[in-house]
Amino acid sequence: MTNGPHVTRRMAIAGSAALAGACSMRLGDNFTACDTHPLDYPTVQAVVRFGEMLTERSGGKFGLSMYAGGQLGNERDTLEITSFGGIDFNRVNLAPLNSIEPLTTVAALPFIFESTQHMRSTLDGPIGEEILASLEQHNLIGLCFYDSGARSFYNTRGPIRTPEDMKGLKLRVPGSDLFVAMVKSLGADAVPMPLDEVYQSLAQGVIDGAENNWPSFEQGRHFEVARFYSLTRHLLAPEVFVMSKQSWDKLSPEEQAIVRQSAKDSVPIMRQLWDAQVARSQEVIMASGVEVNEVDPAAFTDRMKGMWAEFITTPDQRRLVDAILANRQGG
Ligand code: GTR
């Protein structure tokens, strides 16, 4: 994993990582992996387990250094560095990939998956494979999807029951046009912002709220400031684990097979960790006295589905949307 501009970038990364130090986990010398979440978050732990499998299956040739907690930067920036080969492995949400590859938007549409089971079975099959493969032209090798639960809105003002309650609220979203349009369709103001700025912005009143799953709401400590969590469950957009194509191209076919298989084998591990984390986060949030409420689902579904047409514009996107809908149990 050397030579050319790659070395320069890698050295820069190694330098900043050495400074940041604190929550990196060293398993070997070869590959770098990063994640925006803390070390004990399910995505991070799944990639650590992936690294262990890699070491074992390569007879000790490969190892992984995990830089968690956003040490190497926000998802948009680290994705770019990954595509240049400066980071070998990266775990991100689909959101920052939406502006890079249109097929990723399909799995990030609000209310496209009717359940976790629907999301898992769709992404475990040919539709998931096609979305992962579409990343290669952007110099990323899509290895697997991880769960990200359901995203719902939380805020500092009061419970949201219908879109009318969202009028005028300033809500943080990840940097994705789809997310911006989604929040606008509900009558609120969308503020694109990296995840690591959300706590401070909530505390200072720069934003009124955001949207995320139980574990991110809890692990980012956002629940300490935003005391209302309204269960819209609008998105089941998954996480995705990618490798730099530059790093991939340096591996033999046998080594590539080990990487692919180890990533696939980390998926059931992640799902187990995820389900347990959701339960733990839910407990912490409820115990802290956050007011959690159900919403009027139809009002949200109607508005958010109205924006699908704006983002589903190519025949390939339409084909995938139809295939996902055909895969529903509930029709
Ligand atoms: C989390 C996700 C992160 C990041 C974050 C966000 O649920 O795991 O990858 O996308 O949301 O909202 O920025």
From TrEMBL:
Could you cite one Gene Ontology molecular function of this protein? carbohydrate binding
CDD domains for this protein: PBP2_TRAP_SBP_like_3
Please, which domain of life does this record's source organism belong to?
Bacteria
The record's annotation in InterPro entries points to: DctP_fam (IPR018389), TRAP_DctP (IPR004682), TRAP_DctP_sf (IPR038404)
List GO BP terms, alphabetically: transmembrane transport
Please tell me one Gene Ontology term that the record gives under cellular component. outer membrane-bounded periplasmic space
Stored Pfam families: DctP (PF03480)
Q: Which UniProt keywords apply?
A: Signal
Signal peptide positions (record)? none
Protein name as annotated: 2,3-diketo-L-gulonate-binding periplasmic protein YiaO
